[in-house]
Amino acid sequence: MKHLGEKNFSCAICGKSFWNKQNLSQHIKTHDGQKPFQCSKCDTRFTVKYSLINHRCRVGDKVEKCFICDVCGTSFASKPNLFQHILSHSDSKLYQCSICDKSFKHSSSLYKHQKSHHTRQFGCD
């Protein structure tokens, strides 16, 4: 798998991180209920395109690329999504807090932890 660098684009609402601004923009639609991507076979609607592709992989529709989890058979539209899913099958925690050394499976969990546990509150004296 090719190293994709840092996920520098984070959602201000939930902290989930993305490789590029386009993926972040698509993700933001999940918070406001937009579902612009529709399956042509069953009319199910999705907030982001890769969810539609994942759906098409699951229902056996021919899609250019489907990435399948060897552990449980779940299909994904991209390698990064498969990689994030594979972490759920292991005890590996790749994201470590630089303040308290607590570790997390997902970067979004680390972000939420740091925001809720290590955010300094400023008040009036």
UniProtKB/TrEMBL annotation:
GO cellular component: a single term: nucleus
Gene Ontology terms for molecular function: DNA-binding transcription factor activity, RNA polymerase II-specific; protein-macromolecule adaptor activity; RNA polymerase II cis-regulatory region sequence-specific DNA binding; zinc ion binding
InterPro entries given in the database record: Snail/Krueppel_Znf, Znf_C2H2_sf, Znf_C2H2_type
Record-annotated C2H2-type domain positions: 9-36, 67-94, 95-122
Repeat in keyword set: yes
SMART domains with a match to the protein in the record: ZnF_C2H2
Similarity-based family: Belongs to the snail C2H2-type zinc-finger protein family.
Protein name, entry field: C2H2-type domain-containing protein
Assigned keywords, A-Z: Metal-binding, Nucleus, Repeat, Zinc, Zinc-finger
One Pfam family here: zf-C2H2_4
Tagged with keyword ATP-binding: no
Source organism: Graphocephala atropunctata
